[in-house]
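note to self — DONT lose this again. spent like an hour looking for the file last time. sequence + predicted structure for the chain T wanted, 436 res
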Amino acid sequence: MNYPFPRSGGITEDPCGPPNFLVVSSLQHNLEDDPACRFVFSPETNFDGILVLDSYGAESVETIVRETNSYVLPMANLSGAALPFADFQSDVRTSETISLAIEELSHIARRIQTLPDGVRASAIPETILLARAYSRKRVIEPVYDPSVRDCVIYPVAGLVDEPGRRAERMTNAGYFTRMFFDRLHACPDCGSSRLNAREECVACRSADLSDQALIHHLQCGHQSLEADFRQQGLLVCPGCNTELHIEGVEYEKPGTVNTCRSCGHVSSQASVGFVCIDCKSRHDSEAIATRDFYKYELTRKGERALITNEPWVTREKSTIGSSPQEAVIHQALRLHSRYGRPLAILRVTFGIDNREYISDRLPSDAQASNQLAAILHSETRETDVIVEAENGFFVYMPETPDDGVNSSSTRLRDRINATLPAGFDVNIKAMRPEDL
């Protein structure tokens, strides 16, 4: 079957020629080339975007992307299968939807063509994040997705692992600005945000509760559950054995209480508890952890670094002292040394005994590090500088005297103890600039 489509008025002539789009499908579809694009059917050829047409394509496209380093290239998904990282989604495959897909792919492909060759073919996660944000003309924004443990994904980030954590580090370096998205609860045991919040009995923590009305006999003053007053369809006061008829005159209903069917406990107010859908553990609301998620917008500095292919963009790993934070830190150290300006430094590290604990109780070391980083960002000032280091973080706090660092340490320790899993050991040590 042929799928001709009208050329979109939004697609202009490209001096480099029409883009090539790789068709990923189990069948050799008779797609007609158009002045707007050409179709290729082998990943060994050069292509500028990917068109997924069926379930076979949906299953194999991730492998193709990884093997060809096509992380930055746009993708359209017309298979009906779930491909959250695709730039265009449609459950139907018609001439119209293919036309819309080609238009979307073409616009993105043309922006990618303006980037250096090393950026377009990069497999470095930080470079991919910058390039995808630049070429899609939008922020790297999270969306809710209950199919993953975090319940949040970043579709614009494509196949980059841990995009939120990487974007946080790049935000500290000035390549993104971040905006608050949402705060989700997380299981202290496994880190999952797939939680069931429920009312529970304050005595036995069962969720088998029922609301029952209270009855107050005005004459004798006896008050108890309505069930205690019921006798063969009548209301009879269990205190004085008087039959009651008229509400508001002989008796009143002052409210309701929670009755536990499991243990019989009666309480005026239920507790709130959480049950993890993944690991099945139950926790009181006071023990549950929270995790903040942000959306990230490309800055002019990030765009300039991407277009000029600066060394920061192309290096494999970020190291301490190689980001723009280094200048801020050195300036604070110089002011302290020359003029005696206050400067406090905190060294925040995971306890030695936590290595086995992390691997047993959390999905990964990165999960624990990400939670700790979120706490540090929320509990420190905008003027403080947070730098990731081996087994933890440094927090540089300019214009902070000794009493200020003590109160900051206490506040951080309280927040960490309230957020991270019970028994999780995090060490906070105050350092002098001379100790570095």
